[in-house]
């Protein structure tokens, strides 16, 4: 019998049911401990409910381009449900917006939209992009859309905050008839800073520009509403995100875009499934969405798993998830601020600038690669380091540290290998499964590393590209997991 659960009960059930929460590794000191996964901004762990939904769906799997057999009908219906589920989750009216899957993450979608927007308004050759963008929401516009102007950020002391709204308006006025669109991230993948995307949309529309929002770091962490704002100027024209950052690794990238924009031009990608009729000298493109935007056989199980995760998140409520995760971010920031040698990047006063999911930092006197290696090898804490595919933003925040470390004030004179070693940060990032004890484990480890800087320095050697390797602890990943061993066990082990 089904017992309808409350939002909190669902949250508690889901939190502890992610795959990989019990993964154990042997550390450099020989201890075996559970991994603490603080790399959710790169990719989240797999939600158990979504994994189970995909597994159950495999019994019925069939290509959605097949039509008449039972499985084909189930596959087609569920795949169609996945699109609609995502649209309603994002508050996008299905009459006005289309959702389609493309590539393996946000990057494919942004490249596609850059080409779509270029072809939609070819007379406009300029795009505004913020300084805090991931390369995936910067380089596609440079390559496909003409001229890119980078928008500065609000600055308080030396700490950058959100995108500066005055500069957005200034650039919109200055290049008025040439700006096609503004491309901004809803949440920074470096600092976790949340941008005022609806205010930016309002400004963009006031000056007849479109807005494309990179939602890679937003969708799993905070409510998003693309359409239906009291002031229609605040609606978002196009939105992109990654399924692998939304609790379903192996699921595709997602684009949600205004239908009238998509319908105005021929789809950027062509092939099977998106045409009505094909003759040797011409073809006719389907009018229906998402078909016309999805050439070829899509990643059907991935899309269905992603929609299952979104159904779960919607039943919990994104406002509840946001509140829950915000408490962890505040707790982590407060505890980390208490360790004097930790330098946290970006605005840390959350009343000025709220954050979601990510905190990037350095320990004074230790390179980012060394800290990340020690966290992994001695504390089993998985974090990311280096520049997180956001070089201009990271550089802006660490330039002073870099020059201080070099005892020099001319960046051009520095050895490139030295720059790689110093230029970077460590990023701890959270997800639905993060617990208070994960935050405590991180803070404990950072305090400990801070106290034993020289010990750690003596245990590692600097390798190339800013990474450090342990002098004696050289575990082979294949001892922990290898597909070849898995298959060999599967085939040859006696049951
Ligand atoms: C804000 C942001 N945009 C875009 C991307 C690129 O996403 P993907 O690697 O899924 O294409 C990332 C990945 O970290 C990101 O954080």
What do you see in this structure?
It is a single chain. With 495 residues, this protein is an alpha/beta fold. It folds into 2 domains: 7-46 and 317-480, Aspartate Aminotransferase, domain 1, CATH 3.90.1150; 51-315, Aspartate Aminotransferase, domain 2, CATH 3.40.640.10. The chain is built from 17 helices and 23 strands. The strands form 8 sheets. A 7-stranded mixed sheet has the order 6-14-13-12-11-7-8, sandwiched between helices. A 4-stranded antiparallel sheet has the order 17-18-21-20. α1 packs across α9 (300-316) and α10 packs parallel to α14 (436-451). The two termini are 34 Å apart. 45% of the residues are buried. The mean pLDDT is 93.
Second CATH tier, the architecture of the largest domain: 3-Layer(aba) Sandwich
Structural class: alpha/beta
- The name CATH uses for the topology of the largest domain is Aspartate Aminotransferase, domain 2
Query: What is the CATH H-level superfamily of the largest domain?
Result: Type I PLP-dependent aspartate aminotransferase-like (Major domain)
Major beta sheet, specifics?
Answer: 7 strands, mixed
User: Could you estimate the helical fraction of the residues in percent?
Assistant: 25-40%
* Biggest sheet: strand arrangement: 6-14-13-12-11-7-8
What small ligands are held by the chains? pyridoxal-5'-phosphate
Question: What is the CA-atom radius of gyration, in angstroms?
Answer: 24 Å
């Amino acid at each position: 019998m089904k017992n309808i659960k409350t939002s909190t009960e669902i949250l508690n059930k889901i939190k502890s049911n992610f795959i990989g929460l019990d993964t154990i590794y042997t550390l450099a000191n020989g201890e075996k401990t559970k991994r603490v996964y603080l790399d959710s901004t790169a990719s989240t762990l797999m939600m158990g409910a979504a994994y189970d939904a995909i597994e159950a769906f495999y019994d019925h799997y069939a290509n959605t381009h097949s039509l008449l057999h039972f499985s084909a009908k189930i596959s087609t219906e569920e795949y169609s449900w996945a699109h609609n589920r995502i649209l309603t989750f994002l508050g996008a009216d299905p009459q006005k917006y289309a959702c389609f899957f493309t590539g393996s993450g946000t990057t494919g979608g942004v490249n596609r939209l850059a080409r779509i927007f270029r072809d939609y308004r070819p007379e406009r050759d300029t795009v505004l992009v913020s300084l805090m963008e991931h390369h995936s929401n910067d380089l596609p516009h440079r390559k496909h859309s003409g001229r890119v102007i980078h928008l500065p950020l609000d600055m308080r002391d030396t700490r950058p905050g959100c995108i500066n709204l005055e500069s957005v308006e200034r650039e919109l006025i200055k290049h008025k008839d040439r700006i096609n669109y503004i491309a901004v991230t809803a949440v920074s993948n470096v600092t976790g800073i949340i941008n005022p995307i609806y205010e930016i949309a309002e400004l963009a529309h006031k000056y007849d520009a479109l807005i494309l929002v990179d939602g890679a770091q937003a969708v799993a962490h905070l409510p998003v509403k693309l359409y239906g704002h009291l002031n229609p100027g605040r609606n978002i024209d196009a939105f992109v995100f990654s399924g692998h950052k939304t609790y379903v690794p192996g699921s595709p990238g997602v684009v949600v875009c205004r239908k009238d924009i998509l319908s105005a031009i021929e789809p950027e990608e062509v092939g099977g499934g998106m045409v009505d009729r094909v003759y040797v000298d011409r073809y006719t493109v389907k009018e229906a969405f998402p078909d016309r935007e999805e050439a070829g056989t899509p990643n059907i199980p991935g899309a269905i798993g992603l929609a299952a995760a979104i159904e779960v998140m919607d039943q919990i409520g994104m406002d509840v998830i946001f509140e829950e995760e915000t408490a962890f971010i505040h707790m982590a920031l407060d505890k980390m601020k208490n360790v004097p040698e930790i330098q946290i990047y970006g605005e840390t006063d959350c009343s000025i600038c709220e954050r979601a999911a990510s905190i990037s930092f350095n320990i004074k006197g230790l390179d980012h690669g060394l800290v990340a290696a020690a966290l992994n090898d001695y504390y089993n804490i998985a974090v990311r380091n280096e520049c997180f595919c956001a070089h201009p933003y990271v550089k802006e925040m660490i330039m002073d540290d870099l020059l201080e470390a070099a005892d020099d004030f001319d960046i051009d004179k520095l050895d490139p290998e030295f720059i790689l070693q110093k230029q970077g940060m460590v990023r701890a990032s959270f997800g639905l499964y993060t617990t208070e004890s994960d935050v405590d484990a991180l803070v404990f480890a950072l305090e400990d590393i801070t106290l034993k800087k020289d010990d750690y320095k003596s245990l590692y050697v600097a390798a190339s590209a800013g990474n450090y390797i342990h002098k004696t602890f050289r575990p082979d990943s294949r001892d922990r997991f290898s597909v070849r061993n898995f298959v060999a066990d599967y085939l040859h082990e006696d049951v």
